[in-house]
Each structure stands twice: as C-alpha cells, then as structure tokens.
Design a protein that fits this description.
It is built from no helices and 14 strands. It has 180 residues and is mainly β. Strands 11-2-13-14 form a four-stranded antiparallel sheet, with no helix packed on it. It is globular, with a radius of gyration of 19 Å.
C-alpha cells in the first residue's frame, strides 16, 4: 500500500572539536585550569534538523514554552513553527525585559519578573535574536520555520521527526544563526 506517514530518524556525525592548546601569539603561555579543565564546545544544543519541500498538512501550531534559567535561556537555539505562540517563562531570580533585535515591537514591552511569563507570536519565518538591552550576555535565538517537520538532536546527534507524510523531502541543518 502507498505510504501515508512515517518517522524520519537520523544521526548527525559531527567532527571532533580541536583539542585545547596549540600555539599562542601572546606574551604568556596558556595555563591549564587546576580546578576545572577546559571543556570542548558541544554544538548539538545549537542545531536544528528541518525537513523542507514536501507536503505540509500538519495540524496548526500550538504554544511553545521557552524557559529563562539564571542568566541564559534553557535552550540557546529554539525552533518554532510559524504561527505558534512563544511563552517566555522567567525562572531566574532577576527581572528581564526581552526584545527581538530583528523586530523590536514583536515582544510586548516591559519586564518579566521572576516566576512570571510573557507571550508573543512571530510573524515571519527566519531568525529572531531575543536579548535584554541591560543584560548583553542574555542572548537566545528563535528559528521560526514554515515547515512543521523539525527536530533537535540529542546528546549523541540522533534525531527523530514523527508523522512525516510521504513525499520528497530535503534535510537542512540550522546551526546557531544560519543554515549549514
């Protein structure tokens, strides 16, 4: 029988990050940290796998919760479907005033106090950088997608996208702030 929907699974094989060390051009040789060794950069929390090009008969988008924990977002890059409502939930001990750099009027003005939240709906596909002008280190990225078929890889690089209709699809990977 012809296929109607299925599961797309895969694994992103990423190259090993370069070992720390190497030569420097400064005046002092780098020192090893005696308390905590330098950790390798793990790009997986900043990756999104997206299927594009096939039929898009998925149900309408729902609300998506994005937690603000401490001085950063729980996920540095969060995929969201176009038309979905994003709820920023402040679980940090300080108030924040989030602003979208690309569309300053998108997020309602004002602060989000601890244990409070704020909602908004992205109006166009693309990247939205959410930050607080008074906290320059607070940066979160929303990847607004037209396709309802996307996933975030786990710690081993595996991903799974469910209920994908039969058709021809192209797999694209988003990293941090652009397609790779």
């Amino acid at each position: 029988a012809p296929a109607t929907a299925g599961v797309v699974t895969g694994k992103l094989d990423l190259p090993e990050p370069p070992a720390s060390g190497g030569s420097t051009r400064g005046y002092l040789a780098p020192l090893e940290n005696p308390i905590l060794p330098v950790q390798k950069l793990d790009p997986r929390p900043r990756l999104v796998v997206v299927l594009v090009g096939g039929p898009t008969t998925a149900p309408p988008p729902s609300q998506l919760v994005w937690d603000l924990v401490g001085d950063s977002f729980a996920r540095p890059v969060l995929p969201v479907r176009l038309g979905a409502e994003v709820l920023i939930k402040n679980k940090s001990p300080r108030a924040v005033a989030p602003v979208a750099r690309e569309s300053p009027d998108l997020v309602p003005q004002g602060t989000i106090n601890p244990s409070a939240s704020k909602t908004f709906k992205p109006a166009a596909a693309g990247l939205l950088t959410i930050t607080d002008p008074t906290l320059p280190h607070l940066i979160g990225r929303l990847v607004v997608l037209e396709s309802p078929y996307f996933a975030v890889p786990d710690g081993a690089g595996r991903f799974e996208i469910k209920d994908v209709p039969a058709g021809e699809w192209t797999v694209r990977v988003w990293y941090l702030d652009g397609w790779i």
